[in-house]
Amino acid sequence: MSEVKYSKEHEWIKLDGEEATIGITKHATEMLGDIVFAELPEKGSNVDKDGTAGVVESTKAASDVYTPVSGEVIDTNQMIVDDPSKINEDPEDSAWFFKLKIKDKSEMDSLMSKEEYEKFAKETSA
Amino acid sequence: MSIKKTSLNNLHIKYGAKLVEFAGYQMPIQYKDGIIQEHKYTRSHSGIFDVSHMGQLFISGSDDLTRDLEKIFPADLKKLKTNQSKYSFLMNNKGGIQDDLIITKTSDGFLIILNAACKYNDYKVIKSKLDNQYKLNLDESLSLIALQGPEAKNVLNKVIPGCDSLKFMNGNNYVYNNEKVYITRSGYTGEDGFEISIKHSDAETFVENLIENGSKLIGLGARDTLRMEAGLCLYGNDLDNDTSPIEANLKWAIPKSRIETEFVGSEVLKNQFQSGVKKLRVGIKPDSKVIARGNTKIYNDKNQEIGKVTSGTFGPSVEHPIAMGYVDNSYSTVNTKIFLEVRGKKIPANICNLPFYKKNYVKGEINV
Question: What range does the domain containing B60 cover?
Answer without folding.
Answer: 1-231
